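S.,

As promised, the 1,3-dihydroxyacetonephosphate run. Input:
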Amino acid sequence: MSAVAVPIEQYALLDDEECQIRIERAKARLGDRVLILGHHYQRDEVFRHADVTGDSLKLSQQAARSGARYIVFCGVHFMAEVADILSRPDQVSILPDLAAGCSMADMADRVNVQRAWDQLAALIDVEARVTPVTYINSAADLKAFCARHGGIVCTSSNARAVLEWAWARREKVLFFPDQHLGRNTAYDMGVPLEDMVVWDPFQPQGGLSREAVERARLILWKGHCSVHQMFRPEHIDRFKAQHPDTRVIAHPECSFEVCRKADHVGSTEYIVKTIAASAPGTRWLVGTELNLVNRLARRFPDRPVHFMAPTVCMCSTMFRTDPQHLAWVLENLVEDRVVNAIRVPEETAALARLALERMLEVSA
Ligand code: 13P
Ligand code: SF4
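Predicted complex:
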Protein backbone atom coordinates (compact mmCIF):
# COMPACT_ATOMS: atom_id res chain seq x y z
CA MET A 1 0.00 0.00 0.00
CA SER A 2 1.32 3.45 -0.90
CA ALA A 3 0.53 6.51 1.22
CA VAL A 4 0.39 8.73 -1.84
CA ALA A 5 -2.94 8.86 -3.66
CA VAL A 6 -2.99 7.88 -7.31
CA PRO A 7 -3.75 11.13 -9.18
CA ILE A 8 -7.01 11.50 -11.12
CA GLU A 9 -4.99 12.20 -14.29
CA GLN A 10 -4.15 8.50 -14.45
CA TYR A 11 -7.88 7.73 -14.75
CA ALA A 12 -8.84 10.43 -17.22
CA LEU A 13 -7.78 8.35 -20.19
CA LEU A 14 -9.56 5.15 -19.11
CA ASP A 15 -12.57 4.31 -21.23
CA ASP A 16 -15.97 3.87 -19.56
CA GLU A 17 -15.95 0.09 -19.96
CA GLU A 18 -12.61 -0.31 -18.21
CA CYS A 19 -13.94 1.96 -15.43
CA GLN A 20 -17.05 -0.19 -14.98
CA ILE A 21 -14.89 -3.27 -14.40
CA ARG A 22 -12.62 -1.45 -11.98
CA ILE A 23 -15.53 0.11 -10.05
CA GLU A 24 -17.18 -3.29 -9.58
CA ARG A 25 -13.90 -4.87 -8.50
CA ALA A 26 -13.18 -2.10 -5.99
CA LYS A 27 -16.75 -2.23 -4.64
CA ALA A 28 -16.47 -5.98 -4.11
CA ARG A 29 -13.21 -5.53 -2.20
CA LEU A 30 -14.60 -2.73 -0.04
CA GLY A 31 -17.78 -4.65 0.82
CA ASP A 32 -19.90 -2.98 3.47
CA ARG A 33 -17.15 -0.49 4.29
CA VAL A 34 -18.51 1.67 1.47
CA LEU A 35 -21.99 2.98 0.69
CA ILE A 36 -22.52 4.62 -2.69
CA LEU A 37 -25.42 7.07 -2.82
CA GLY A 38 -26.68 8.14 -6.25
CA HIS A 39 -28.98 11.07 -6.96
CA HIS A 40 -31.55 10.56 -9.74
CA TYR A 41 -29.76 13.13 -11.94
CA GLN A 42 -26.56 11.10 -12.16
CA ARG A 43 -25.59 9.72 -15.55
CA ASP A 44 -26.35 6.02 -16.04
CA GLU A 45 -22.72 4.87 -16.04
CA VAL A 46 -22.47 6.14 -12.46
CA PHE A 47 -26.09 5.65 -11.30
CA ARG A 48 -25.92 1.87 -11.88
CA HIS A 49 -23.25 1.50 -9.19
CA ALA A 50 -25.25 3.20 -6.43
CA ASP A 51 -26.34 1.09 -3.45
CA VAL A 52 -29.18 3.52 -2.82
CA THR A 53 -30.70 5.93 -5.32
CA GLY A 54 -33.14 8.69 -4.53
CA ASP A 55 -33.95 12.36 -4.04
CA SER A 56 -32.15 14.61 -1.59
CA LEU A 57 -34.40 13.72 1.35
CA LYS A 58 -34.13 9.97 0.90
CA LEU A 59 -30.36 10.13 0.41
CA SER A 60 -29.81 12.33 3.47
CA GLN A 61 -31.90 9.90 5.55
CA GLN A 62 -29.73 7.04 4.24
CA ALA A 63 -26.56 8.93 5.10
CA ALA A 64 -27.88 9.47 8.64
CA ARG A 65 -28.53 5.78 9.24
CA SER A 66 -25.61 4.22 7.35
CA GLY A 67 -23.01 2.17 9.22
CA ALA A 68 -20.50 2.30 6.34
CA ARG A 69 -17.08 3.77 6.99
CA TYR A 70 -17.09 5.58 3.64
CA ILE A 71 -20.10 7.32 2.09
CA VAL A 72 -19.40 8.09 -1.56
CA PHE A 73 -21.96 10.66 -2.67
CA CYS A 74 -22.64 10.70 -6.39
CA GLY A 75 -24.48 13.99 -6.37
CA VAL A 76 -23.41 17.57 -5.70
CA HIS A 77 -21.42 19.32 -3.00
CA PHE A 78 -24.21 20.29 -0.59
CA MET A 79 -25.39 16.66 -0.54
CA ALA A 80 -21.95 15.38 0.50
CA GLU A 81 -21.86 18.09 3.17
CA VAL A 82 -25.21 16.89 4.53
CA ALA A 83 -23.90 13.31 4.58
CA ASP A 84 -20.88 14.48 6.56
CA ILE A 85 -23.01 16.46 9.01
CA LEU A 86 -25.50 13.63 9.64
CA SER A 87 -23.03 10.75 9.80
CA ARG A 88 -20.81 9.74 12.74
CA PRO A 89 -17.41 11.42 13.22
CA ASP A 90 -15.57 8.22 12.25
CA GLN A 91 -17.37 8.05 8.90
CA VAL A 92 -16.07 9.86 5.84
CA SER A 93 -18.20 11.55 3.20
CA ILE A 94 -16.63 11.68 -0.25
CA LEU A 95 -17.56 13.67 -3.35
CA PRO A 96 -15.94 12.07 -6.42
CA ASP A 97 -15.49 15.39 -8.26
CA LEU A 98 -15.07 18.45 -6.07
CA ALA A 99 -16.26 20.69 -8.91
CA ALA A 100 -19.77 19.16 -8.69
CA GLY A 101 -21.54 22.14 -7.12
CA CYS A 102 -25.05 23.53 -7.52
CA SER A 103 -25.45 26.91 -9.22
CA MET A 104 -28.69 27.55 -7.32
CA ALA A 105 -27.01 26.91 -3.97
CA ASP A 106 -24.40 29.52 -4.93
CA MET A 107 -27.12 32.19 -5.31
CA ALA A 108 -27.31 32.66 -1.54
CA ASP A 109 -24.30 32.86 0.72
CA ARG A 110 -23.55 33.67 4.34
CA VAL A 111 -22.71 37.29 3.54
CA ASN A 112 -25.77 38.20 1.48
CA VAL A 113 -28.20 36.28 3.70
CA GLN A 114 -26.78 37.95 6.82
CA ARG A 115 -27.09 41.32 5.06
CA ALA A 116 -30.72 40.58 4.19
CA TRP A 117 -31.42 39.54 7.78
CA ASP A 118 -29.85 42.75 9.12
CA GLN A 119 -31.80 44.89 6.64
CA LEU A 120 -35.03 43.12 7.57
CA ALA A 121 -34.15 43.64 11.24
CA ALA A 122 -34.07 47.38 10.60
CA LEU A 123 -37.71 47.15 9.45
CA ILE A 124 -39.29 44.51 11.69
CA ASP A 125 -38.46 42.39 14.72
CA VAL A 126 -37.00 39.44 12.80
CA GLU A 127 -36.28 37.21 15.80
CA ALA A 128 -39.92 37.40 16.89
CA ARG A 129 -41.59 37.47 13.48
CA VAL A 130 -39.48 35.67 10.82
CA THR A 131 -38.48 32.01 10.54
CA PRO A 132 -35.59 31.46 8.10
CA VAL A 133 -35.99 28.35 5.94
CA THR A 134 -33.22 27.17 3.68
CA TYR A 135 -33.66 24.69 0.87
CA ILE A 136 -31.22 21.81 1.35
CA ASN A 137 -29.58 23.09 -1.85
CA SER A 138 -27.41 25.49 0.16
CA ALA A 139 -24.06 25.58 1.92
CA ALA A 140 -23.71 24.19 5.46
CA ASP A 141 -23.17 27.66 6.95
CA LEU A 142 -26.64 28.73 5.76
CA LYS A 143 -28.15 25.71 7.48
CA ALA A 144 -26.26 26.80 10.58
CA PHE A 145 -27.62 30.33 10.11
CA CYS A 146 -31.16 28.93 10.12
CA ALA A 147 -30.56 26.95 13.31
CA ARG A 148 -29.14 30.03 15.01
CA HIS A 149 -32.30 32.01 14.23
CA GLY A 150 -34.90 29.36 15.06
CA GLY A 151 -35.14 28.10 11.49
CA ILE A 152 -35.02 24.85 9.58
CA VAL A 153 -34.02 23.11 6.32
CA CYS A 154 -36.39 21.69 3.70
CA THR A 155 -36.13 19.55 0.58
CA SER A 156 -38.46 19.51 -2.38
CA SER A 157 -40.37 16.59 -0.87
CA ASN A 158 -41.06 18.03 2.58
CA ALA A 159 -41.31 21.78 1.85
CA ARG A 160 -45.01 21.86 2.74
CA ALA A 161 -44.56 20.23 6.15
CA VAL A 162 -41.56 22.46 6.83
CA LEU A 163 -43.47 25.63 5.94
CA GLU A 164 -46.30 24.53 8.23
CA TRP A 165 -43.72 24.08 10.99
CA ALA A 166 -42.21 27.49 10.28
CA TRP A 167 -45.51 29.39 10.18
CA ALA A 168 -46.68 27.68 13.35
CA ARG A 169 -43.79 29.44 15.11
CA ARG A 170 -43.64 32.89 13.52
CA GLU A 171 -45.89 34.84 11.20
CA LYS A 172 -43.35 35.29 8.35
CA VAL A 173 -40.87 33.07 6.53
CA LEU A 174 -37.65 34.08 4.77
CA PHE A 175 -37.13 31.30 2.20
CA PHE A 176 -33.86 30.83 0.27
CA PRO A 177 -32.33 30.27 -2.20
CA ASP A 178 -35.07 28.92 -4.55
CA GLN A 179 -37.98 31.32 -5.02
CA HIS A 180 -39.90 28.78 -7.12
CA LEU A 181 -40.00 25.97 -4.56
CA GLY A 182 -41.13 28.46 -1.94
CA ARG A 183 -43.80 30.07 -4.12
CA ASN A 184 -45.17 26.82 -5.58
CA THR A 185 -45.40 25.14 -2.19
CA ALA A 186 -46.97 28.09 -0.38
CA TYR A 187 -49.52 28.65 -3.16
CA ASP A 188 -50.58 25.00 -2.94
CA MET A 189 -51.04 25.54 0.79
CA GLY A 190 -53.51 28.34 0.06
CA VAL A 191 -51.21 31.34 0.47
CA PRO A 192 -52.12 33.93 -2.21
CA LEU A 193 -49.40 35.46 -4.39
CA GLU A 194 -50.18 38.90 -2.87
CA ASP A 195 -48.81 37.59 0.44
CA MET A 196 -45.42 36.82 -1.12
CA VAL A 197 -42.60 39.20 -2.05
CA VAL A 198 -39.24 38.59 -3.73
CA TRP A 199 -36.07 39.74 -1.98
CA ASP A 200 -33.42 40.75 -4.52
CA PRO A 201 -30.02 40.52 -2.78
CA PHE A 202 -28.55 42.96 -5.31
CA GLN A 203 -31.01 45.77 -4.45
CA PRO A 204 -30.93 47.98 -1.35
CA GLN A 205 -33.43 46.58 1.16
CA GLY A 206 -34.04 43.71 -1.26
CA GLY A 207 -35.84 46.13 -3.58
CA LEU A 208 -38.80 46.18 -1.17
CA SER A 209 -40.62 48.91 0.71
CA ARG A 210 -41.21 48.74 4.47
CA GLU A 211 -44.95 48.26 3.77
CA ALA A 212 -44.29 45.34 1.40
CA VAL A 213 -42.17 43.59 4.05
CA GLU A 214 -44.74 44.34 6.74
CA ARG A 215 -47.55 42.87 4.62
CA ALA A 216 -45.71 39.77 3.35
CA ARG A 217 -46.09 36.32 4.89
CA LEU A 218 -43.42 34.83 2.65
CA ILE A 219 -40.20 36.57 1.61
CA LEU A 220 -38.71 34.64 -1.30
CA TRP A 221 -35.03 34.89 -2.16
CA LYS A 222 -34.41 35.79 -5.79
CA GLY A 223 -32.71 32.52 -6.71
CA HIS A 224 -33.53 29.78 -9.20
CA CYS A 225 -32.28 26.60 -10.81
CA SER A 226 -30.81 27.27 -14.24
CA VAL A 227 -31.93 23.84 -15.42
CA HIS A 228 -35.58 24.04 -14.32
CA GLN A 229 -36.04 27.64 -15.44
CA MET A 230 -35.70 26.40 -19.05
CA PHE A 231 -39.14 24.77 -18.95
CA ARG A 232 -41.89 27.12 -20.16
CA PRO A 233 -45.69 26.91 -20.08
CA GLU A 234 -45.76 27.18 -23.88
CA HIS A 235 -43.81 23.91 -24.08
CA ILE A 236 -46.72 22.24 -22.31
CA ASP A 237 -49.33 23.98 -24.52
CA ARG A 238 -47.53 23.00 -27.72
CA PHE A 239 -47.13 19.38 -26.67
CA LYS A 240 -50.70 19.05 -25.46
CA ALA A 241 -52.02 20.48 -28.73
CA GLN A 242 -50.54 17.39 -30.40
CA HIS A 243 -51.21 14.91 -27.58
CA PRO A 244 -54.19 16.13 -25.53
CA ASP A 245 -54.20 12.98 -23.39
CA THR A 246 -50.77 13.77 -21.86
CA ARG A 247 -50.16 13.82 -18.09
CA VAL A 248 -47.76 16.59 -17.11
CA ILE A 249 -45.38 16.21 -14.17
CA ALA A 250 -42.90 18.84 -13.00
CA HIS A 251 -40.31 19.41 -10.30
CA PRO A 252 -41.26 22.28 -7.92
CA GLU A 253 -38.09 24.16 -8.95
CA CYS A 254 -39.96 24.90 -12.22
CA SER A 255 -41.66 28.28 -12.56
CA PHE A 256 -45.08 29.01 -11.09
CA GLU A 257 -46.66 29.05 -14.57
CA VAL A 258 -45.26 25.61 -15.42
CA CYS A 259 -46.34 24.14 -12.09
CA ARG A 260 -49.86 25.58 -12.48
CA LYS A 261 -50.21 23.76 -15.78
CA ALA A 262 -48.80 20.47 -14.45
CA ASP A 263 -51.06 17.65 -13.26
CA HIS A 264 -48.47 16.60 -10.66
CA VAL A 265 -45.66 18.51 -8.96
CA GLY A 266 -43.04 16.85 -6.78
CA SER A 267 -39.48 15.82 -6.05
CA THR A 268 -37.40 13.55 -8.25
CA GLU A 269 -38.37 10.53 -6.13
CA TYR A 270 -42.03 11.50 -6.44
CA ILE A 271 -41.68 11.79 -10.22
CA VAL A 272 -40.12 8.31 -10.44
CA LYS A 273 -42.79 6.75 -8.20
CA THR A 274 -45.71 8.48 -9.93
CA ILE A 275 -44.65 7.37 -13.41
CA ALA A 276 -43.86 3.86 -12.14
CA ALA A 277 -47.36 3.58 -10.65
CA SER A 278 -49.16 4.86 -13.76
CA ALA A 279 -51.09 2.59 -16.10
CA PRO A 280 -49.31 1.28 -19.19
CA GLY A 281 -50.14 3.52 -22.12
CA THR A 282 -50.10 6.74 -20.04
CA ARG A 283 -48.22 9.47 -21.92
CA TRP A 284 -46.00 11.69 -19.73
CA LEU A 285 -44.46 15.09 -20.29
CA VAL A 286 -41.78 15.61 -17.65
CA GLY A 287 -40.21 18.88 -16.46
CA THR A 288 -36.99 17.87 -14.79
CA GLU A 289 -33.36 17.09 -15.57
CA LEU A 290 -32.63 15.18 -18.78
CA ASN A 291 -30.69 12.18 -17.42
CA LEU A 292 -33.61 11.24 -15.18
CA VAL A 293 -36.18 11.72 -17.96
CA ASN A 294 -34.16 9.59 -20.39
CA ARG A 295 -33.81 6.86 -17.76
CA LEU A 296 -37.57 6.86 -17.13
CA ALA A 297 -38.23 6.64 -20.88
CA ARG A 298 -35.99 3.57 -21.14
CA ARG A 299 -37.38 1.96 -17.99
CA PHE A 300 -41.01 2.29 -19.06
CA PRO A 301 -41.21 1.63 -22.81
CA ASP A 302 -44.95 0.87 -22.40
CA ARG A 303 -45.78 4.45 -21.29
CA PRO A 304 -44.25 7.15 -23.50
CA VAL A 305 -42.12 9.57 -21.45
CA HIS A 306 -41.22 12.91 -23.09
CA PHE A 307 -38.87 15.69 -22.05
CA MET A 308 -40.65 19.03 -21.60
CA ALA A 309 -38.20 21.42 -23.29
CA PRO A 310 -37.11 21.45 -26.94
CA THR A 311 -33.49 22.07 -25.91
CA VAL A 312 -31.14 19.95 -23.82
CA CYS A 313 -31.46 20.79 -20.10
CA MET A 314 -28.90 18.80 -18.22
CA CYS A 315 -27.47 19.64 -14.84
CA SER A 316 -23.85 20.15 -15.90
CA THR A 317 -22.55 19.89 -12.36
CA MET A 318 -24.40 16.63 -11.60
CA PHE A 319 -22.88 15.39 -14.87
CA ARG A 320 -19.35 16.03 -13.61
CA THR A 321 -19.32 12.79 -11.64
CA ASP A 322 -18.13 10.35 -14.26
CA PRO A 323 -17.05 6.69 -14.01
CA GLN A 324 -13.42 7.82 -14.10
CA HIS A 325 -13.81 9.82 -10.86
CA LEU A 326 -15.82 7.03 -9.22
CA ALA A 327 -13.17 4.43 -10.11
CA TRP A 328 -10.50 6.81 -8.81
CA VAL A 329 -12.06 7.34 -5.36
CA LEU A 330 -12.94 3.66 -4.91
CA GLU A 331 -9.54 2.30 -5.92
CA ASN A 332 -7.88 4.75 -3.55
CA LEU A 333 -10.21 3.58 -0.77
CA VAL A 334 -9.22 -0.03 -1.42
CA GLU A 335 -5.69 1.13 -0.55
CA ASP A 336 -7.05 2.99 2.53
CA ARG A 337 -6.40 6.36 0.91
CA VAL A 338 -9.20 8.90 1.13
CA VAL A 339 -9.44 11.40 -1.71
CA ASN A 340 -12.01 14.23 -1.89
CA ALA A 341 -13.31 13.95 1.67
CA ILE A 342 -15.91 16.59 2.52
CA ARG A 343 -15.48 17.86 6.06
CA VAL A 344 -17.69 20.58 7.53
CA PRO A 345 -16.00 22.36 10.47
CA GLU A 346 -17.63 21.08 13.68
CA GLU A 347 -18.77 24.50 14.85
CA THR A 348 -20.81 24.94 11.69
CA ALA A 349 -21.78 21.26 11.52
CA ALA A 350 -23.27 21.23 15.04
CA LEU A 351 -25.71 24.01 14.19
CA ALA A 352 -26.43 22.75 10.67
CA ARG A 353 -27.19 19.34 12.21
CA LEU A 354 -29.78 20.94 14.44
CA ALA A 355 -31.58 22.51 11.46
CA LEU A 356 -31.38 19.23 9.53
CA GLU A 357 -32.64 17.20 12.49
CA ARG A 358 -35.62 19.52 12.81
CA MET A 359 -36.33 18.80 9.16
CA LEU A 360 -35.94 15.01 9.56
CA GLU A 361 -38.33 15.10 12.50
CA VAL A 362 -40.90 17.06 10.49
CA SER A 363 -40.60 14.56 7.61
CA ALA A 364 -40.74 11.40 9.77
P1 13P B 1 -34.75 16.47 -5.22
O1 13P B 1 -35.02 16.88 -3.82
O2 13P B 1 -36.00 16.20 -5.97
O3 13P B 1 -33.77 15.39 -5.28
O4 13P B 1 -34.14 17.72 -5.97
C1 13P B 1 -32.82 18.12 -5.80
C2 13P B 1 -32.39 18.98 -6.87
O5 13P B 1 -31.32 19.53 -6.84
C3 13P B 1 -33.30 19.19 -7.97
O6 13P B 1 -32.77 20.10 -8.84
FE1 SF4 C 1 -28.68 22.60 -8.49
FE2 SF4 C 1 -30.47 22.82 -10.45
FE3 SF4 C 1 -28.48 21.05 -10.66
FE4 SF4 C 1 -30.49 20.65 -8.90
S1 SF4 C 1 -30.62 20.68 -11.15
S2 SF4 C 1 -28.29 20.38 -8.52
S3 SF4 C 1 -30.89 22.78 -8.28
S4 SF4 C 1 -28.28 23.32 -10.58
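The first strand starts at residue 34 and ends at 39. DSSP finds 17 helices and 13 strands in the chain.

- D.
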